[in-house]
């Protein structure tokens, strides 16, 4: 006897479902079981799919994916429908998913298996199963895994309710859902699905002692199952008229319990009879537990967001009134760690002298304590500045204040001692004169300010500085003065803007300079609009739009808080691209004191910043070498400080570089012929070999040594 005859004798058919071609091959018995003529046939997928009950069909994908993951057979219980939508029979399918990979790398599945008729449920029930129930249990496991993952990923109450509304439970999908919350002695609906607008009104403000299933569930903490309208009418006659108008047949009301506390109730209503077998009750109970936990997590997260957003609004200042002759823009973006306010801050402070101060800082850490210290330190700096203290005095007092604030003396426990452990903060304080553009800068371990010149060229302005605030209570903070020319823009930022995305200070600064120098000017905008657009571009260069509500992969990459402040002095070029403006003289001034030989490295870096777009890299190296030699000679052979003045004049490709180093000594340099092992005496030789021209200018007190280089035009 043939195998096909044996299978037909036991009402078992063979089928082959090819997902890649979209065809299904049936033998004669399989075709008969699907309500088709009893003969072998190859049909398109859509023709076979129409024979299955829609609810059962929706479960197949989850069953197949679970079987692929476990390396087992895919088992499913399917109801076969006729053209009029009536159930003909129930079949059990067992198949092996085989993975087929196409030429283009796409993965499809081919199902090869059997279809066998099984006992149908008794009229009016959904619970009668044959002894072989592994298919239904497998479908239930796949559903619970998907439901648990979806509910765990929901971040708000609205998202939790949307996930709950989309749940399709295996074999008995609800037609209507409602989630009830408790407030005092009142029950109200906080979300529903499958109902029309206004349908929830009678249930919105219901007393807990009302004769209603959800109210009883909340009072007792026990689930209520109503398989038929008769059961509902018998148990809850007072509220039956409210439920009757929805045309449902079965209801399940389950408590939402978290940590032993009933926080509400969940209703699942069905338009078809459900007997609520032990398996079905188990699924509903599990979903209710997951739903309760998801709602609690969402509620806590929403409370935290509300708290932190309020904290952020109270701590982050407004930029204040307009300043004549100046434009200001600022951005603050917290870290993606969950807390929407961190240790970074900025401030603009009106001063008694008629000037104003810009402050930007970063408290160590990204936690609640960093946010608290930031708020206290910002208030302290504002108070010291408002008293009229100079920039160096403001930072000295702030350092003493933070050191005292973080003292751990008097802590009674390890946790309290850890909370009061020392922390430091970096800070940059700039006092600005809006009439002259004069800036006085004091810096406490913070990144230097950046200047964008009117031709679009961007330089990091080297300034004197001291230790971060709070490390040594009595610390001196030297000040640096320079002028913000009309049309120039100054950028102050925290290290989060520079280093986010795996960058260090050098590579991060190169990324920002490309943004600052890019020709992004919109002819339809000007002035403050350009400055606001530039602030957005700087933040977007790191991780997308500036709003801390950003979602998506870039938002998850936030590693540090970001604060950035832009100050522009009114004039041609405030935010405009280089192509629209003439190029002014680039000029930088730096003093290297006898007590600060380490600033020679800063002088070399300053020259490289000034010449970052110079056509000849070898000339840049030569200029840096000569400057290092000249400044070192002043510190070694005189008793005074070295004053470095460097300027580049002209258009790109035809510029002239002139660098002067002045000191207070009257002794003129002279040419020497050092031997191979000599450690000095090569300064003049280097200038003769590398500079286009050089010289020495005597002054009333001291001298100035200078050299010039001429930029060659770029090839092509």
What would you say about this model in short?
It is built from 19 helices and 27 strands. By secondary structure, it is α+β, with helices and mostly antiparallel strands. Helix 5 runs parallel beside helix 10 (about 280-315).
Describe the structure.
This protein has 716 residues and is an alpha+beta fold. 33% of the residues lie in helices and 27% in strands. The chain contains 19 helices and 27 strands. The strands form five sheets. A six-stranded antiparallel sheet has the order 3-2-1-6-5-4. A hairpin with a 5-residue loop joins strand 5 (87-101) and strand 6 (107-118). Helix 17 (599-610) runs antiparallel to helix 18. The longest helix is centred in the middle third of the chain and has 38 residues, at 278-315. The protein is elongated. Residues 121-135, 413-417, 520-526, 545-558 and 577-581 have low confidence and may be disordered.
Observed structural traits:
716 residues; alpha+beta; 6-stranded antiparallel sheet; 19 helices; 27% strand; elongated
Structural class: alpha+beta
Biggest β-sheet: count, sense, barrel? Answer: 6 strands, antiparallel
Please state the overall shape, judged from the principal axes of the Cα atoms: elongated
Q: Average pLDDT, to the nearest integer?
A: 79
Low-confidence stretches: 121-135, 413-417, 520-526, 545-558, 577-581
Total number of β-strand segments?
27
Distance between termini? 87 Å
Strand order of the main beta sheet, please? 3-2-1-6-5-4
The fraction of residues assigned to DSSP E strands is 25-35%
């Amino acid at each position: 006897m043939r195998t096909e005859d044996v299978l037909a004798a036991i009402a078992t058919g063979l089928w082959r479902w090819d997902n890649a071609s979209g065809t299904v091959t049936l033998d004669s018995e399989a075709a008969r079981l699907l309500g088709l003529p009893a003969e072998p046939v190859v049909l398109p997928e859509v023709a076979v799919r129409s024979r299955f009950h829609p609810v059962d069909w929706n479960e197949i994908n989850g069953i197949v994916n679970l079987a692929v993951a476990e390396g087992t057979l895919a088992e499913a219980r399917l109801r076969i429908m006729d053209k009029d939508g009536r159930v003909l029979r129930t079949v059990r399918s067992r198949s092996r998913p085989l993975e087929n990979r196409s030429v283009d790398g796409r993965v499809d599945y081919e199902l090869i298996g059997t279809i066998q008729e099984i006992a149908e449920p008794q009229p009016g029930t959904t619970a009668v199963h044959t002894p072989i129930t592994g298919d239904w249990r497998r479908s239930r496991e796949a559903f619970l895994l998907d439901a648990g993952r979806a509910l765990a990923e929901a971040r708000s109450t609205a998202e939790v309710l949307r996930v709950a509304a989309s749940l399709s439970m295996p074999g008995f999908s609800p037609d209507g859902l409602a989630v009830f919350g408790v407030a005092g002695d009142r029950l109200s609906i906080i979300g529903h699905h499958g109902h029309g607008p206004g349908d929830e009104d009678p249930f919105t403000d219901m007393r807990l002692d009302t004769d209603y299933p959800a109210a009883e569930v909340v009072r007792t903490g026990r689930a209520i199952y109503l398989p038929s309208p008769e059961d509902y009418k018998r148990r809850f006659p007072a509220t039956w008229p409210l439920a009757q108008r929805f045309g449902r047949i079965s209801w399940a009301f389950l408590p939402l319990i978290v940590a032993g506390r009933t926080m509400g109730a969940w209703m699942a209503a069905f338009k078809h009879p459900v007997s609520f077998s032990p398996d079905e009750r188990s699924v509903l109970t599990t979903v209710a537990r997951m739903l309760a936990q998801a709602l609690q997590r969402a509620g806590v997260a929403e409370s935290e967001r509300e708290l932190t957003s309020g904290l952020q609004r109270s701590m982050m200042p407004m930029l204040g009134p307009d300043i004549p002759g100046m434009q200001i823009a600022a951005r603050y973006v917290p870290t993606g760690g969950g807390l929407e306010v961190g240790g970074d801050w900025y401030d603009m402070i009106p001063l008694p002298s008629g000037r104003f101060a810009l402050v930007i800082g970063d408290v160590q850490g990204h936690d609640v304590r960093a946010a608290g210290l930031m708020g206290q330190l910002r208030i302290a700096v504002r108070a010291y500045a408002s008293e009229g203290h100079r920039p160096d005095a403001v930072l000295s007092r702030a350092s003493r204040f933070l050191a005292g604030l973080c003292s751990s003396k008097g802590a009674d426990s390890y946790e309290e001692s850890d909370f009061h452990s020392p922390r430091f903060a970096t800070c940059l304080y700039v006092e600005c004169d809006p009439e002259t553009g004069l800036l006085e800068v004091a810096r406490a371990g913070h990144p230097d300010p950046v200047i964008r010149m009117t031709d679009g060229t961007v330089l990091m302005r080297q300034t004197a500085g001291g230790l971060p605030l709070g490390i040594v209570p009595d610390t001196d903070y030297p000040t640096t003065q320079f002028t913000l020319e009309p049309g120039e823009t100054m950028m102050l930022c925290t290290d989060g803007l520079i280093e986010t995305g795996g960058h260090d200070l050098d590579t991060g600064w190169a990324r920002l300079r490309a943004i600052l120098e890019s020709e992004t000017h919109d002819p339809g905008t000007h002035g403050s609009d350009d400055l606001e657009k530039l602030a957005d571009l700087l933040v977007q260069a790191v991780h997308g739009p500036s709003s801390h509500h950003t979602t998506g992969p870039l938002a998850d990459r936030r590693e540090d808080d970001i604060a950035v402040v832009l100050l522009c002095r009114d004039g041609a070029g405030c935010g405009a691209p280089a192509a629209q403006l003439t190029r002014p003289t680039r000029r930088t001034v730096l003093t290297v004191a006898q007590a600060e030989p380490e600033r020679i490295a800063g002088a070399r870096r300053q020259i490289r910043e000034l010449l970052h777009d110079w056509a000849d890299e070898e000339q840049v190296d030569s200029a840096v070498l000569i400057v290092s030699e000249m400044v070192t000679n002043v510190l070694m052979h005189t008793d005074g400080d070295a004053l470095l003045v460097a300027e580049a004049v002209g258009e790109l490709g035809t510029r002239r570089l002139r660098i002067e180093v002045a000191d207070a000594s009257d002794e003129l340099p002279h040419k020497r012929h050092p031997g191979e092992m000599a450690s000095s005496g090569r300064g003049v030789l280097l200038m003769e070999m590398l500079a286009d021209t050089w010289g020495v200018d005597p002054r009333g007190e001291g001298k100035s040594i200078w050299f010039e280089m001429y930029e060659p035009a770029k090839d092509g």
